[in-house]
Amino acid sequence: TIAVGCVAVLAAGGGFFLFGRGNGTTSRHPAAPLTLPGCTTAVAKAPQLHQLASQMSGLGGQPFDVATRPGFAFVSFTNGRLAVMSTAKSPASTLSTVQVPLGSLGETLTPDQSHLVVSGSSGLTVYQVSALEQGGTATPLGSLTSPGQKHAAEVAVTPDGRFAFVTYQTTHNVGVFNLQRALSSGFSPADLVGLIPVPPEPIGIALSPDGRYAYVTSAGQGNSSAGGGLTIVNVRTAEADPARAVVKRVAAGCGPSRVITSADGQQVWVTAAGSNALLGFSAAKLLSEPQHALLARQAVGAVPLGLTLVDHGTRIVVADSDRGKPPGGASDLAVVGIQDALAPRPALLGYLASGQQPRQFALLPGGGTLLVTNTDSQQLQAVNLAHLP
Q1: Is residue 313 within 8 Å of 338, Cβ to Cβ?
Q2: All residues at 6 or more sequence positions from 248 whose CB lies less than 8 Å from its CB, including other chains
Q3: What separation in angstroms does the CA of 49 have from each of 45, 323, 370?
Q4: pLDDT digit string (tens) for 258-309?
Q5: Average pLDDT in the 23-49 region?
Q6: pLDDT recorded at residue 224
Q7: How far is the C-alpha of 306 from the C-alpha of 362, rounded, in Å?
Q8: What gap in Å lies between CA 196 and CA 10, rounded to an integer?
Q9: Is the pLDDT of residue 19 over 50?
């Protein structure tokens, strides 16, 4: 949970971060460096994208995350259930549900798509994908836990499929597990490699495409931009000695929430939930010149959480969750043009209607349909991306 306050948003370098006017972009001299936004409850104005069609599937529970493979979607629920859905026809339909022993929040497929890893409570539950797709009550292969840790939120698996990383949101740790060992030798306490120390309230995690670095967002504590940020982790070090794996810690606006990388790994994108903003960083400069790493700063809607690349990596869709119902906010999906955002120039292309509290995304194979979990309205939304602006 991210507590969001409202403070003056005058950038340290003298540039204002304007919300609710035009496309909500930074007003500054072109040569001036970008500065990080502060906390705000104001939102950017943009047109509605009525040309994008959506279909809703009612789920009968609060969905958190979604993962996809050809013909199927796996939806995790906040009450510890996992739904296996068919995407062969639209809207998607539920084939079966299972109760996840550790509970469920985030989830991811292994790179070969043979296993589904679901986060919850003190760690991860691992399923064989083929067993889930056969329907009925699939039995998990096992669990990876870290005693004393709580609220496992987001999970990422290394590109080689060997290790799994999980954020423990109510702590200041990221767990590292030897997934390959668990799958080959049986699940045991020895599968826990250790914990990576990060700022409080870690939630988002993404790995660079080459598997060298992990990026972790931490919301921090209180109603300010202090205490949280973006942590860069050396993955190879983390696989052997997690306590020594942190390379850099940098500020990332107010209440950083989720993080992704561009397909080539050159940019790192973060939603700052307390800043109502999307931030883009240079992956190289996060390591060499973190004070000059900010490349893009775009105001969006209320309390942005999840984000994903669409349209061959030329657009980012952001889930404006409106969590906590701040004044003037609304639940919707913001569409941002990457080329404009990096220029930087006005990049908010518009808003698409969503259900209540959109949270996480997954593209169906082929990239033409985007699935969205709408937590409070208990829906899975399918967005046809054919007519993106």
Answers
A1: yes
A2: 231, 232, 286, 287, 290
A3: 13, 22, 15
A4: 999 999 999 999 999 999 999 999 999 999 999 999 999 999 999 999 999 9
A5: 77
A6: 57
A7: 10
A8: 34
A9: no
Task: Please tell me the pTM assigned to this model.
Answer: 0.92
The H-assigned helical ranges of 268-311 are 283-288
Distance CA 111, CA 260 (A): 16
Q: Decide if 135 contacts 165 (C-beta within 8 A).
A: no
Inform me whether the pLDDT recorded for 192 exceeds 60.
yes
Residue type at position 374 = N
Distance of alpha carbon 65 from the chain centroid: 9
341/4: higher pLDDT = 341
Give residue 158's pLDDT.
98
Q: Where are the alpha helices (DSSP H) in the chain?
A: 129-133, 179-185, 235-240, 283-288, 338-342
* Residue 30: band (very low, low, confident or very high) from pLDDT cuts 50, 70, 90: very low
The DSSP result for 85-124, as a single string, is: EE-SSSS-EEEEEEE-TT--S-EEE-TTSSEEEEEETTEE
Question: How is residue 186 written in tokens?
Answer: 């049986």
Residue with tokens 């049986």: 186
**Contact present, 49 and 370 (Cβ < 8 Å):** no
- Both structure tokens of 121: 């409570």
- Residue 58, classed as helix, strand or coil, is strand
CA distance 11 to 254: 13
Phi, psi dihedral angles at 78 (to 5 degrees): -70, -15
Cα atoms in the 13 Å half-sphere on the side-chain side of 199 = 25
pLDDT of residue 135: 84
